[in-house]
UniProtKB/TrEMBL annotation:
Organismal lineage: Bacteria, Pseudomonadati, Pseudomonadota, Gammaproteobacteria, Vibrionales
Protein name: Enterobactin synthase component D
Pathway the protein contributes to: Siderophore biosynthesis; enterobactin biosynthesis
Family assignment from sequence similarity: Belongs to the P-Pant transferase superfamily. EntD family.
4'-phosphopantetheinyl transferase domain sequence ranges: 54-138
Signal sequence residues: none
Length: 172
């Protein structure tokens, strides 16, 4: 999937390797992310100079019981309320926040270089009509991200899955 995505950008005969943290290692001047759930796999690849932050995640919607069990590990109360106030069910809000934070992690890991928890980012804006949200990354991590601490995330809400995408341009 990743190789096919790179071929669209005329990057051929280069492999995506696997790093020590099981992260994809993209060819020089490229960046990207991959995700899969069940029988669905997705990849997003871009030229690093144009889009330094690329993250994608696809998840099945959490059921109410699972969402309630993990909600406190994933979400802050104000994040949930922001999404619920716009008509999402609690388990949908938890699923979307989880996926968005996964996309943010994938987008920023190449520069941060270490794992960080869900508490390190917070949803500060959500627009259900436009299917976008904005995540704020804590300052100690943002300093590794070219000074960027706000990341716009596109959300694709399907019947059985949620897909989130971060594709930040180099312009601030």
């Amino acid at each position: 999937m990743a190789s096919l995505s790179m071929s669209v950008l005329s990057v051929v005969e280069q492999k995506v390797l696997i790093g020590s943290h099981r992260e994809p290692l993209w060819p020089q001047d490229m960046t990207g992310a991959i995700s899969h759930t069940g029988a669905r796999a997705v990849a997003l690849v871009a030229e690093q100079a144009v889009h330094p932050f690329v993250g994608i995640d696809v998840e099945h919607w959490l059921d109410a019981v699972t969402a309630a069990e993990i909600e406190s590990q994933i979400c802050q109360g104000r994040e949930l309320m922001l999404l619920i106030e716009q008509g999402l069910k609690r388990e949908e809000a938890t699923s979307l926040i989880f996926s968005a934070k996964e996309s943010l992690f994938k987008a920023t890991f190449p520069l941060i270089g270490r794992y960080f928890g869900f508490e390190s980012a917070c949803v500060v804006e959500f627009d259900r009509t436009d299917q976008t949200l904005v995540l704020a990354l804590e300052p100690s991590l943002a300093r590794h991200c070219l000074g960027q601490n706000l990341f716009r995330c596109e959300c694709f809400l399907q019947a059985s899955t949620v897909t989130t995408v971060i594709l930040s341009s180099s312009r601030r």
